[in-house]
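Support request, please re-run this one:
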Amino acid sequence: MGGAITGILLAITFVIFVIYAMKGGNLTVGFFAMAVLWAIIGMVPFQTAIKEIFTDPVLNYGKTAAYIIFGSWFGRVLVDTGIAGSISRRTEKVGKKRPVLATILIAIVVVLIFTSSYGVGSAIAVGVILFPIMFSIGVPKPIAVSVFTIAIGAAMYVNNVLFVQFQVFFPEVAWGPHYQRFGFVAMFVQLAVLIAFILFNAKKIRNGKPIIVESDFKDTTLDVPIWTYILPILPVALSIFAKWDAIPALLFSTLLAFLATGNMKSYTRFVTMMNDTAKLAISDIAGLLIMLFVLTMFQSAAIHATSSFTELFQQIIPNNKLLLIVIVAIIAPLSYFRGPLMLYGAGAATAAILVSTGLFNQYFLYGLLVVPSMMGVSACITQSWNLWSVQYAKLDTKTFLLTGLPWAWGATVINLFVAYILL
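Re-run finished. Output below.
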């Protein structure tokens, strides 16, 4: 009887959390409340909860936090040294005569930059360069916004900084060849769908009315060596081919960006640039880090609270991988508004339950839940840089969702089957 009551209470609080997350509730508050509630409902001993739920997970997350900080710093450096802007400005030269080709090149540039860059600050800094370019060559605002956000989502499949954040849900999954093979295929699939989206809207782009947007961006095209255009993908390349850890790869690339753009010509200039970019980068992700620390508490609480229900979950959840893939492909939009398929939302509880069953390989579960989560990252209004993009373009939310959702959903369906094959 006690077990049944516990199960009912866990289910009720899960539903409440899903509703709370989908209505835009603060996730830091939500995850902490759920960690406390599930520790109480699961009758976790007080001292065990203090150590194994509210202490150890946070301390063990320190390594991941370092990855996030260095990734955000690298993204800020790419922007503030002029490298990201220089790449963007060179694509603009194509735009006046071939706006469709220019739009495709811009999408590729965004993917290139965000394979290693991370953070809403970096996204905004790149967006204030690229949106005026797209508007000036006649790309309609709804199309321009979706190109930008879906391109960032594509890059996130191979962005190590985002990978280590999602990795907390699946401790057996590692950043290595097994995942990287899937990550690059998924990235190219989403990029291919995005290019199809641009070609589908080619007539609207060609016939679009140019809009001139005032920008404070300084044109640094002539100041930045062309060879620095490889820097956005250098950390990923060092990680894959030289087997470097992400932190030295990001740090080396950051220092190389400073050196190549003349920001190390004097000690004073270097220190000033280093401090300024670091401060901005860390402020960009301060709230995210706190949320992720609290998320680890909830993850641990979920494992403790659901451990006694593993057999029940095993009986309820389909044990056929292909059937699960088909189900998730159909209900993928539940990743929107922080729903039960979004790992930065109610999907955290879904992941905890699926992992606790032990029914599936964690690489498979990673693909099963990360792919729809990437759909949310790419085209949901609750993603911070998506919301900023919509506000910057003065676009209404409904138009944004209707423009991007069908294409993001299409990429998600394909990538779920890619995950089934490769993971």
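The mean pLDDT is 85. The radius of gyration is 22 Å.
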